[in-house]
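Hey team,

Filing this mostly as a record. A colleague (T.K.) asked me to run one chain through the structure pipeline before their review meeting, and I want the input and output archived in the tracker in case anyone asks later how it was produced. No errors, nothing strange. Just documentation.

Input sequence:
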Amino acid sequence: MRGLGKELRTGLIAVLAMTLVLGLAYPLVVTGISQVLFPGAANGSKVSFDGRVVGSRLIGQEFKGKAFFHSRPSATGYSGDATFFANVGPNSKEGREEVRENLAAYLKLNKPFDRGLTKADVPVDAVTNSASGVDPQISQANARIQAHRVAAVRGLPLDEVEALIDGVVEGRGLGVFGEPGVNVLELNVALEEAAPLR
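Output structure:
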């Protein structure tokens, strides 16, 4: 019985010590280091415009209207607190129908501003969901197609809008992973700074 009390006391001390070290000290140290070395990333990679936070460069969001670049489709409604993908395979009837609907909507939105646009020209990311549902990037090809619409609606030269795209292209992850992409939020912020909607 006396041995049990000693083991219980030792166990409680170990739990308390580990809670203090791993539950309090370690997170505080890591948070402090990240705040000093990577303050932007540690605070959510927030993007500000006109003195207010408009989003995070890490989480895609929905943009409506012809005057803005649009993100890729999302199964989550761009909800950062519930990321998931559509979970339909390439042979799924539901998946094929969703892609057809997205393709029709994309062509309806962009073809009036780029008469030569065909189904074959539409990049995959314009009509399919991302794996997380909140990817902040679109392909350069997708952005360049949308540039025709945005330039026409805003009354800007196409080459000026394409220069904005080039200014926010992000390279491959660590130089080797994935493809270069365009951060839609940062592109729309750059667009608003260059030619605000009236």
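Quick notes for T.K.: The chain has two domains: 1-43, 44-194. The longest strand covers residues 52-56.
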